[in-house]
Design a protein that fits this description.
With 138 residues, the chain is of the alpha/beta class. It contains three helices and eight strands; from the N terminus they run βαβαβββαβββ. Strands 1-4-3-2 form a four-stranded mixed beta sheet. A four-stranded mixed beta sheet has the order 5-8-7-6, covered by helices on one side.
Amino acid sequence: MPVSVTDFSHVRLTVSDIEVSRAFYDAVFGFDVAFELPENPDEQTKEELSFLFGGVIYSFAGGLLGLRPVAPGHDTFDEDRTGLDHVSFAVPDRAALEQAVAVLDELGVAHEDIKDVGPMSILEFRDPDNIALELTAS
């Protein structure tokens, strides 16, 4: 009998520079921070939050998204290697995709044109580590 799951819990992305990645994810998505190490933490807090590896975990309606800054600085994402292909975030409709284009343009984030792919439309772009991201409207 297969394992019965109800939803995603979280996705954590390995990044090379937490400051650069946080600036990107904060500007593009504006997610709430669920977990991060505070400035000047005591030893107990450091131990309790050691699972962050110096990164951050964001909270949004779909669950949790973490950034784990342990990749070597010269490393970049490649969806043709074993592992992650891309991360897709749902938006309500095509108008939200059009609004996202305006946000990405304002931030200077390169992106593809909105594509209609059967029952949905998608907007593709990449984060500072070249991780493939997508917004999807059904």
